[in-house]
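Lecture 7, part B: from sequences to assemblies.

Below are the input chains for today's worked example.
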Amino acid sequence: MISKADIEGLFKKQLKKIGDAALRDKVVDVWLAGCERGGWKSVDDLLNIPFTLLTDTKGVNFIEHTLAVTDGAIALAQAQIDNYKNVPYPIDMDRLIAGGILHDVGKLMEIEPDGSGGYRKSHAGRCARHPISGAILAGEMGMNDEVINTIICHAKEGDGRPQVIETVLIHQADFATFNPLVMLKKGDLIQ
Ligand SMILES: [Fe+2]
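Predicted structure of the full complex, as structure tokens:
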């Protein structure tokens, strides 16, 4: 059984940076509910999930990806805050970090073990891609609309749609981890 303390342990460094205690708690609760809904039983289970089924992740797991995207988005925000005299759009770090930790929470329902050591798309995943299922879960649990915008619009579902600035940053950090793997597979990444 995955506990609240397990989730807090996995995302400790990032959760600490969320100033709003109620939001921090809600992020953990949504993750925990995702684990329950997806049927994941242990932290080791979570550490074995590939972060995507769309390309060879070269061993990068779902938790590592979520941490890298969250840290990457924080760095993108910080780079603008540090270097612009006037940041033209206020960036809400609490929302950004919550959105980073939760952007792929729907993958807990979208991916399942295939019974022979691998992973496949679940029935729920075929019915709704992870941005949609993650947003539904977060909405059910009372997450604010802006973080829901990040979950639902961080991938192709967000193309051409209105987005909060935090969604834009999470999207860029997300694809910075995904595109190089796709290019590597195609032989398009120059080494
Ligand atoms: Fe992602």
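Note for the exam: The chain is about 60% helix and 5% strand. Keep this in mind when comparing with the next example.
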